[in-house]
C-alpha cells in the first residue's frame, strides 16, 4: 500500500512558547513541521524545506512577517503556498494590508488553536487534497488516496507505491511543472538520498502504467525544467 507523505507546515513565530504549542498541535494532527523564529530564518527554512503551508507571525525580529509574505508571494516556486498570517493587529486597515501583501488568511491574536487548526485543514484540502483523503480527477484518470486505487476510464490500473505517490503529486497540481528535486522531496521525502535521475525512471514506469503507448500520454516533459500533468 502506498504511503502519502504528510503535508508539511512551517511555523514562523518568535515567541517560543507559542511556536511549540502550534508545533505540538500540528504534529498531533499528523503534519510534519519546521520552525523559524525570525524573518531571515523563515526565508532560509522555506528554501530548504518547501512547505505546503506557512503559519506566519506579522511581528518578527529582523525581516517582518509582512515582508516575508511579500517575498514568498513573488517567488515562482513559493507563490502558490498558502500563508496564514497571525497578528495582534486588529484594525481593518491591517487586515487589508495583510491580504493585499498576499496572505491567504488572517488570524488575530489571541486566537483559538482549534480554529487555527481548522483553517490549516481547509487550506490543505485545496492545495494537498490527496493527503487529506480527497478523490482526485484529471481527464479520464481517477485516483482515490484512501483505497489506493487508480482508474483510467473504466480500467483499473496497477501502480507501484512510488508511481502512486508520483501520480498523486501531479494530480494535486495539474499543469504545474515539477522539477526533479521537487518530486524527490514530495515523493521520496526529504530525509532519503535518491539520485535525481531516478525520477526519470519512475516517470517512465508511470507512463507505461497509464497506457501511454496506446492512449494519449497525460504527462508532459518540459525540457530543462521537469514534468507536468497536462
TrEMBL record:
Compartmental location: Cytoplasm
GO molecular function: phosphorelay response regulator activity; transcription cis-regulatory region binding
GO cellular component: cytosol; protein-DNA complex
UniProt KW Transport keyword: yes
A GO BP entry: regulation of DNA-templated transcription
Top-level taxon of the source organism: Bacteria
Alphabetized UniProt keyword annotations: Activator, Cytoplasm, DNA-binding, Phosphate transport, Phosphoprotein, Transcription, Transcription regulation, Transport, Two-component regulatory system
Residues annotated as domain OmpR/PhoB-type: 133-230
DNA-binding span(s): 133-230
Main location: cytoplasm
Domain Response regulatory: 8-124
Positions of post-translational 4-aspartylphosphate modification: 57
Function, as annotated: This protein is a positive regulator for the phosphate regulon. Transcription of this operon is positively regulated by PhoB and PhoR when phosphate is limited.
Record NCBIfam families: PhoB
Name the record gives this protein: Phosphate regulon transcriptional regulatory protein PhoB
Classification lineage: Bacteria, Pseudomonadati, Pseudomonadota, Alphaproteobacteria, Rhodobacterales
Amino acid at each position: 500500500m502506498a504511503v502519502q507523505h504528510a503535508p508539511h507546515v512551517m511555523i514562523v513565530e518568535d515567541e517560543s512558547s507559542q511556536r511549540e504549542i502550534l508545533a505540538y498541535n500540528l504534529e498531533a494532527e499528523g503534519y510534519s513541521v519546521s520552525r523559524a523564529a525570525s524573518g531571515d530564518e523563515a526565508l532560509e527554512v522555506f528554501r530548504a524545506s518547501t512547505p505546503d503551508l506557512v503559519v506566519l507571525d506579522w511581528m518578527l525580529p529582523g525581516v517582518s512577517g509582512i515582508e516575508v509574505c511579500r517575498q514568498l508571494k513573488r517567488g515562482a516556486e513559493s507563490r502558490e503556498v498558502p500563508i496564514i498570517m497571525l497578528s495582534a493587529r486588529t484594525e481593518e486597515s491591517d487586515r487589508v494590508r495583510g491580504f493585499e501583501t498576499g496572505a491567504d488568511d488572517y488570524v488575530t491574536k489571541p486566537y483559538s488553536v482549534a480554529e487555527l487548526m481548522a483553517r490549516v485543514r481547509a487550506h490543505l484540502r485545496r492545495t494537498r487534497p490527496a493527503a487529506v483523503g480527497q478523490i482526485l480527477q484529471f481527464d479520464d484518470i481517477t485516483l482515490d488516496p484512501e483505497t489506493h486505487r487508480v482508474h483510467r476510464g473504466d480500467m483499473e490500473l496497477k501502480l507501484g507505491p512510488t508511481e502512486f505517490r508520483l501520480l498523486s503529486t501531479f494530480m494535486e497540481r495539474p499543469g504545474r511543472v515539477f522539477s526533479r528535486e521537487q518530486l524527490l522531496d514530495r515523493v521520496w521525502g526529504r530525509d532519503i538520498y535518491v539520485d535525481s535521475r531516478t525520477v526519470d525512471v519512475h516517470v517512465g514506469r508511470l507512463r507505461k502504467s497509464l497506457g501511454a503507448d496506446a492512449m494519449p500520454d497525460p504527462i508532459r516533459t518540459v525540457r530543462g525544467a521537469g514534468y507536468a500533468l497536462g
